[in-house]
Amino acid sequence: MATGLARAQIGCNCVGRSLQSAPLRLSRPLQSSRSQRQQKRGSLCVRAENRYPDPTFVQETLGAFPDKGIANVEEARALFSEGGYVYLDVRPQLEYEEAGKVPGSVNIPVVNSKRKWDPEQNKKVFEKSDNPDFVKTIEKRYPDKETKFLVGCSDGRKYSLDALGALDEAGYGNLAGLKGGYYAWFRVFDNKLARRNLGEYQEEVIHGGDSGGIHASGAGFERVDTADRFVPPSFD
User: Fold this and answer.
1) Given 3-state DSSP classes, what are the helix, strand and coil percentages for the chain, each rounded to the nearest 5?
2) Which residues does residue 175 pair with via DSSP β-bridges, in sequence order?
3) Could you tell me the sign of the dihedral formed by the alpha carbons of 206, 207, 211, 213, in that order?
4) Could you tell me which residues come within 8 angstroms of residue 63 by beta carbon, excluding any fewer than 6 positions away?
């Protein structure tokens, strides 16, 4: 009996040591608990609602502008589609036509640009000059100084800051600048103002899946829009 008990104890000790030292291997990943899945889904829902066209988000955005000054893409979409703001694209006409534009936007360039052959570089280069009629053109088209303008360029800085300053000096008070400019907008909305696939992907994660995992939605990475790989063209 003692010998058998000793063997049993040795066996238990060996098993204990092997369990402590051996790494834990599972045949399939652990599943999140229901509460964890609900928390994940809830956090995603909050993030999804904090954007256009959520009614609360739209209402809060319209109340925050023009005092807030600079709008991100979601806020800009709310101002443009729900707030009566004119999307004023101040890029050069050449850039506006070749790089892309927001449907329904108005192009009045703060800078004029054209291609010109440079014999020293043996290639065409962009020749730029200030548009002396920028403010005059806007005042002719929009004489009401209460007109709401959402001002955008390529990246939100290159031309927009000068345009916002000129419009402010001209007496226009309802001004908002688009953070990131057209290229930031392009990554979220397509040329029909529809949200791009990345946004649809996130919505499917929230509404279509039965767990907190991305693949539970049935969405595949191959559906992610090519805008994610977009490289802005150069007009310098």
Assistant:
1) 45, 15, 40
2) 149
3) negative
4) none
> Which residues 6+ apart lie within 8 Å of 110 measured at CB?
90, 130, 131, 134, 153, 159, 162, 163, 166
- 198 in any annotated domain: yes
Q: What is the pLDDT of residue 235?
A: 59
pLDDT mean over 93-98: 92
Confidence (pTM): 0.66
Dump pLDDT digits (tens) for 149-199.
999 999 999 999 999 999 999 999 999 999 999 999 999 999 999 999 754
Count CB neighbours of 50 within 10 A. Answer: 12
How many separate domains does the chain show?
1
Q: Residue 188 carries which side chain, given as an amino acid letter? A: V
| Dist. CA 177–CA 122, nearest whole Å | 38
Residue 201, domain extent: 32-229
Is there a domain that residue 161 lies in? Answer: yes
